[in-house]
Amino acid sequence: MVGTEETRLVVLRGNSASGKSSVAAGLRERFGRGLALVAQDNLRRIVLREHDRPGAANIGLIDLTARYALDAGYHVVIEGILYADRYGDMLTQLRADHRGPTHGYYLDVPFDETLARHATKPISADVDATHLRTWYRPRDLLPGGIETIITADSALHETIDHIMLDTGLAHLPPRDC
Questions:
Q1: How many CB atoms lie within 10 A of CB 100?
Q2: Which of 25, 62, 69, 112 is the most exposed, having the fewest neighbouring CB atoms within 10 Å of its CB?
Q3: Structural domain range at position 164
């Protein structure tokens, strides 16, 4: 078992440029200290500098990092594309092992909208529409209906408000770290 009955685990998934990182940053800003951000891109691309592939080392590192933070009493937000076929088993086991509430959200944004959002990012010069198309998986949901689907018409502040209330983070005090 991992974490406590009080720790919250939040998993934000969706395609590239769906808004996961912005939502995660907003949750962290809104909550304050005591919320750990476990970002797939940071662990995979920066820490390990590896490609996203089945069985890659970042899958275990995401799991280990989230478990460590939960055991230390932090609420945890895991965010990333986190393809269901590659990360689903790890996320399912982490969910089963977590003592506290776990909430999953899938940011469902159409491909044309991801292209428009991607164009505003610094990496848009390095990653073109062809790459984005090969990465895009419509409604790549985890099995069992365990994710709340958030559509592209939900504004950033609305999505953050919804998740803060739904998870109970809105009513919890920040940690004195």
A1: 17
A2: 112
A3: 9-170
3 in a structural domain:
no
Whole-angstrom Cα distance, residue 20 to residue 150? Answer: 11
Q: Does a structural domain hold residue 177?
A: no
Q: Please give the structure tokens belonging to residue 122.
A: 């610094």
Q: What pLDDT score was predicted for residue 133?
A: 75
Bridge partners (DSSP) listed for residue 75: 35
Residue 165 tokens read as: 């209330």
CATH number at residue 98: 3.40.50.300
Its pTM surpasses 0.90: yes
Number of domains in the chain: 1
* Number of other CB atoms surrounding residue 81 within 10 Å: 21
Q: Output the six-digit token pair for 44.
A: 């995979």
Give the whole-angstrom CA distance, residue 82 versus residue 85.
9
176: in domain: no
Q: Is residue 76 part of a domain?
A: yes
pLDDT tens profile 146-163: 999 999 999 999 999 999
Greatest Cα pair distance, the chain, in angstroms, is 46
Rounded distance, CA 162 to CA 176, Å? 25
- Write phi, then psi, for 80 (nearest 5 degrees): 170, 175
